[in-house]
Amino acid sequence: MRLGMVGLGRMGGNILRRAMRAGIAGAGFDRDAQAVAALAAEGATPAGSLAALVAALPAPRSLWVMLPAGEATEAALRELHGLLAPGDTIIEGGNSFWKDSARRAAEARALGLHYLDVGTSGGVWGLARGYCLMIGGEAEVVARHDALWRALAPGEAAAAPTPGRAGDPRPARGYVHCGPNGAGHYAKMVHNGIEYGMMQAMAEGLDLLRRAPAPLDFALEEVTEAWRRGSVIASWLLDLTAEALAADPDLAGYSGHVGDSGEGRWTVDTAVENGVPVPVLAASLFARFRSRGEENFADKALSAMRKGFGGHLEAPKA
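-> structure tokens emitted (318 positions)
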């Protein structure tokens, strides 16, 4: 198998690297020539344009588009529609809105192309830890790319088996076929909404500890280190928070200006559209909006978590 990657940023570049390390031949294109050169030095076929990338792949082709949601992705897809041949597959792994993915799949189908929307979680750690993949699209096309999903996912050793679980073995490896086109990005949207809520709860709790009345005086870096062992709130988010606090107990390097990728907004919008109550998810989104007008320790903790798992840097305050 050979995989073409459109977009070699912190996610796309590492996805291609992990695939290549598993024996999948890779080719890559990015507007940043240095990003292309870096992957070429690791064995990828470099491409100076989308046309060159398509030409470097044998038919039927598989191209992964890993670009920011919105016009950047739309523009790349429009160009690829004129370059690809019937039977080729477009894999779209960015944080796109699920309705856009369903529409794009229909547009691809009209041209004889296959389209898979793949919600991808793992952030900057995915190269080493693997990526959790939520896939939407035709079952046969999903199955045809199983070697790719296996290469990218963490594998069964990443977590103990769920007692009593039976059925499809793929979720236990870290990837799941969620359903038809749009389902992959819908699942990732909800995943990110939940992420907002979990992060907000942890950040507020840390702020409450930090502001505890005298004579209480908690060393947060020590409390979080203990929580990592045996606590019911132990998690990767807690690991990243403990790491940030160990390096900087006051989180002085963060302003507390907390960004949002857009998926939290889509989650709340979708909940309103379908009449589903999501008070925690909505409140966590609004808390991020509030952080841009004032700051507190909870917001600094949120910023530290976002940098830890996704490499997200704070935007400067207006």
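Residues 183-210 form the longest helix (28 residues).
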